[in-house]
Amino acid sequence: MQTPATYKFDLGQQASIAVSGETGQIIARAEYTTGTNSYLLRYKSADGRAVEAWWNEDAIALDSSPAPCAYCNGSGTCRNPYSAVLGPCAACATRPSSTANATTDASVNPDVSRA
Q1: Phi, psi of 57 (to 5 degrees)
Q2: Are the beta carbons of 61 and 16 closer than 8 angstroms?
Q3: How many Cα atoms occupy the beta-carbon half-sphere of 113 within 13 Å?
Q4: 87-102 per-position pLDDT tens digit
Q5: Cβ atoms 39, 5 nearer than 8 A
Q6: Which helix or strand (DSSP H or E) is residue 43 part of?
């Protein structure tokens, strides 16, 4: 009877490449009869290219930073609805470990109350 595969990482997790620090999302994984498990990581390379590459299990580590925001892709700024003005991303502001470039300027962000 075949035993179920054990994987160190789950699909969809954020991971980083140990030697370069580049981070991305695990989008596939493979097991082999000989050798270690491999993971297909989709990431942005240091030179800005979008890359998908297979990495051995020992070459990647979990990335502790949160996944990029689905609305602003981690930039921290979004176009406010019905406006051409860019402002802080409301979704990022509610994230516990937000690194968004939030502003307190009420002229840019109508959600900020004037003191």
Answers
A1: -55, -35
A2: yes
A3: 1
A4: 776 666 665 553 434 4
A5: no
A6: strand 38-44
